[in-house]
Amino acid sequence: MRLYEYVEAPGGAAIVMELVDGISLRALLKQSGRADAEAALVVLKGSLLGLAAAHRAGVVHRDYKPENVLVAPDGSSKLVDFGIAAGRGTTPGVAGTPAYMAPEQWQGRPASPAADVYAATATFFECLTGRKPYDGENFAELAVQHIEAPVPETEAPEPVRPLIRRGLAKQPEQRPENAEAFVAELEGVALAAYGPEWEERGQRKLAALAALLPLLFPSAGSAAGTTAVATTTVSSGSGWAPGRSGWLAAAVALVLGTVLVLTTDAIGASPGGASALSAFATTSAAPPGSASPVPSPTVSASASGSPSPSPSASPSPSPSPTPTHTPTATPTPTPTVSWTTKPTPTPTATPSPTPTVKVTSVDVSLKTGVYRGDATITVATQGSGPVTVVVEWFLGGARGSYSVADGTESFVVKAGSTVTVVKPHTFSRDRGCYGGVRVTTKPAAGNTSASDSEYLLRCQDVPR
Questions:
Q1: Which DSSP string corresponds to 56-67?
Q2: What is the pLDDT of residue 221?
Q3: Residue 355 has what pLDDT?
Q4: What is the DSSP letter of 452?
Q5: β-strand 338-340 against 225-227: which pairing, if any?
Q6: What's the pLDDT tens digit per position in 214-232?
Q7: How confident is the model at residue 254 (pLDDT cuts 50, 70, 90)?
Q8: Can you spell out the DSSP letters for 280-333?
Q9: Does 174 score more than 90 pLDDT?
Q10: How far is CA 2 from CA 27, 296, 300, 425, 449, in A?
Q11: How far apart are the first and last CA of the chain?
Q12: Dist. CA 363–CA 367, nearest whole Å
């Protein structure tokens, strides 16, 4: 989402940004409950591409969530609202939306792109399943779950579970290092699982979901888009003042913003949930005389579409605050408005390609010693092409427990044969008496993933 202008004045600040003619992912999920895996992958990729540009510039978003992802009529998506963004490596304190905050975010550690990857994965999980990864009823429960609870990967479709496991890893160094790296992993998983046309199909499915909510689009107020140019100036008086055309844009924005607020749900419907989370998630300076903190004013404008407001501190839809003072505007001529028409593309069906690579089975057995484990992995394949085998190591307090991640590696085998590989691993000390291994493949194996865990001989005082 492009930034046109930023201005500060004694009474507040304004961010003038590109208007996105789209509706929030939250509104889509409220309507449909969940999304198809290909559609969810398209949502994730589109929003990650914008986030990647921010990460390259050293900016961490810190508030990636369904309310901040907008879906356009053509099925494309964008990440918006950098109201609580911070520079990489800075320590701005605990901030974000609790349901999507990374473990290190709860602990107030320095801002990092890996925390954005975690929040993006939590949003992706909700898009796939219709529920948030963790459902604690208060901040304390959510903090413990995000920091210690196992990743609920089994609730997601099997082909995309590697993305869930990686993106929701408890340690930031075990996740993709930034949005660009996550996009690369996403494309590899999507291609292996759904074929080369996955993105085109997913975008059509997403467009079909968006078409069910036509009145929520900013452009719904007229048969065609509008083009308006606004400027922002700082006066010597109190507050900030847009230029002459800017006042008209702001007035139209308030009307359209009200429609979006009345039809979009913010965090959840549980008593105290939405208001409590929003209050925790974002804070900003309040204008003089206001009773509670309110977001800094934000005005959006673009080359096509009607201007609309969006809160800069938190994108969770909430009624616009009543201003405590009104800048005096000098009467000005009506600005020139031009009208354009943009045809809506008609979705066309595309047959799914027949995959040439098939993994019929994957098996694993683990032999452990004092600190070492040797995993024997057998992969049976058909067809032609490469197969990626992902090996994840774990530690736990009981057989079958995979509570502590202990490393990940991968290797590639050719399809059309049965391959057996022995992978050694040295487990960390004092983090559990059982070593475990889980093996998945891209594309997914016909008998799903394989896992095994065994007792480590270093724990002689613990009964088997």
A1: HTTEE----SGG
A2: 59
A3: 54
A4: E
A5: antiparallel
A6: 877 776 655 444 444 444 4
A7: very low
A8: HH---PPPTT-SS--PPPEEEE-SSS--EE--SS--S--PPPPPS--------P
A9: yes
A10: 23, 18, 10, 46, 42
A11: 56
A12: 14
406 Cβ partners below 8 Å, 6+ apart? Answer: 393, 394, 395, 425, 427, 428, 431, 435
- Please state, in angstroms and rounded to a whole number, the distance separating the CA atoms of residues 176 and 163: 10
Give the largest Cα separation in the chain, rounded.
86
CB 105 within 8 A of CB 150: no
Select from 297, 343, 310, 321 the least CA-distant residue to 218.
Answer: 310
Q: What is the pTM of this model?
A: 0.50
Q: Looking at 63, 81, 406, 452, which residue is catalytic?
A: 63
Which amino acid, one-letter code, is at 34? R
DSSP assignment, residue 116? H
Distance of CA 372 to the CA centre of its chain: 37
Other C-beta atoms closer than 10 Å to the C-beta of 187 total 14
Note the helical H segments in 130-215.
139-148, 161-167, 179-194, 198-210
Catalytic, 63? Answer: yes
Rounded-to-integer distance, Cα 463 and Cα 328, Å: 78
Report the range of poorest mean pLDDT among 213-217, 344-348, 421-425.
Answer: 344-348
Whether 399 and 437 have beta carbons less than 8 Å apart is answered as no
Contact present, 267 and 66 (Cβ < 8 Å): no
Residue 442: both structure tokens together:
């891209």
Is residue 402 within 8 A of residue 394, CB to CB? The reply is yes
**Torsion angle defined by CA atoms of residues 143, 175, 58 and 316, in that order, rounded to the nearest 10 degrees:** -40
Q: What does the buried/exposed string (b/e) look like for 237-276 if buried means 16 or more CB atoms within 10 Å of the residue's CB?
A: eebbbbebbbbbbbebbeebbebbeebbbbbeeeeebbee
The whole-angstrom separation of Cα 22 and Cα 14 is: 21
Which CA distances in Å does 289 have to 28, 279, 286, 292, 321? 37, 19, 8, 9, 12
